[in-house]
Write a structure and sequence with these properties.
homodimer; about 160 residues; mainly alpha; three-stranded antiparallel β-sheet; about 65% helix; globular; DNA-binding
DNA sequence: TCGAGGTAGATGATGCATCATCTAGGCCGC
DNA sequence: GCGGCCTAGATGATGCATCATCTACCTCGA
C-alpha cells in the first residue's frame, strides 16, 4: 500500500504509445468499415465467426467464447444486428434454454462486401510497417498478457 | 480490388491475439478502477493530464492533443466529470472562445487515491510478464503504427 | 420426483462514443 | 471596419458497453 512502484520512463512511454496506438487504430478501422459498408468492427467480428461456422449457425455461448465478449454485450448486439437483418435468432432443439444465431443472406452479403476493404486497411495501417520478428514478439506479448488475465481472474484487479 | 491479399496464418493469429488482449486488459483495468475508486479509465487519463499541468489547468484543446481524443468525446466527458465535481470549467482570458478546465480538490483527491491501485494492477497484469526487449519492441511497433496513422490520414481508410 | 443450484440467454437503466450541427469569437485581406 | 474563413468548444441524437437483475430450462442427488 505505501511504497507504490511507479512506472519508469521506458514503461510509461511504452504503455502510452500502446494505448494510443490501439485507440487510434481501431477508431480508423471502425470509420473505414462504417463508411464503406455500414458495419461496425463489432458487427464484422460477429459475422466472421458465423461465416466460419459449418452451416452459418452458432449458439450465443459459442460466439461469446470465441469473441471473449461479455454475455450481455453479445445479447444486446445480436438484438441490434437482428433488427438490421444481418442475423436471425432460431430455436435450439437440443437445449430448450438456448438459441441459435444464424447468418442471413443479407449478413453474408454484407461481410463479403466489407472484407476486402477492411483487410486492405488493416494491412496498410498495421502490418505493412512491421517485420516478422516484431509480429512474433507482439504475439508473444499478447499471449503472455492473456495468460496473466486468465490466471489472475480471482485477484483483486 | 480483385486480388485481396488476405492475412496469412501468422498475421491472423497475431492480430486476433493483440485485439483480444487489449480488449480484455482494458476491461479489467476499467473494472478495477471503477470498483476501487469510482473512476473510469477515461476519467483517470484526464485527471493525469491535469495533474501534470503546471497549475492544474488546461485548455480543452490541449487535453485533446495530449489524449488524442475526439473533440466531441472530450467535451461530453468533461461535462460529466464537471457534474461529478472532478473538474471545473473556467473562462479563458486570452481567448474569448476558449475555456479552461481546472482540477478541483475533489478531482485531485480522487486521482491520488486511485493511482496506486491502478499502477499496481497495470504492473501485475501487463509489465510483470514482459522483458525489457519485448517492451522495447512493443514501443517500436506502436510508434510505427502511429506514424502510419498520421501519414495515411488522407487516404481512404 | 422434486428441489437446489447451475447454465443459457434476455432486458432495463445508465453512462459512454460518435456524428452532425451549431454558436461565438478570432484573424486577415480588402 | 466588415465579410469570409478558421478555430474553440458545446450540444442533441443515436448506437454501444456494462451492470444488475430476471426467466426459463437443465442436472443431479436424496
Amino acid at each position: 500500500m505505501s511504497g507504490t512502484r511507479w512506472l519508469d520512463d521506458q514503461e510509461q512511454r511504452a504503455w502510452r504509445a500502446f494505448i494510443r496506438m490501439h485507440g487510434r487504430l481501431t477508431a480508423r478501422l471502425n470509420r473505414q468499415l462504417q463508411a464503406d459498408s455500414g458495419l461496425s468492427l463489432a458487427d464484422y467480428e460477429v459475422l466472421v465467426q458465423l461465416t466460419d461456422a459449418p452451416d452459418g449457425r452458432l449458439r450465443p455461448f459459442e460466439l461469446q467464447r470465441d469473441l471473449q465478449w461479455e454475455q450481455s454485450r453479445l445479447s444486446h448486439h445480436l438484438t441490434r444486428m437482428q433488427r438490421r437483418g444481418l442475423v436471425a435468432r432460431e430455436e435450439c432443439d437440443e437445449d430448450g434454454r438456448g438459441a441459435l444465431i444464424a447468418l442471413t443472406d443479407e449478413g453474408r452479403r454484407a461481410i463479403v462486401a466489407a472484407a476486402p476493404g477492411h483487410v486492405e486497411t488493416v494491412r496498410r495501417l498495421f502490418f505493412e510497417g512491421l517485420t516478422r520478428d516484431q509480429l512474433a514478439t507482439l504475439r508473444q506479448v499478447s499471449d503472455e498478457v492473456l495468460a496473466r488475465l486468465d490466471t489472475g481472474a480471482d485477484l483483486g484487479g
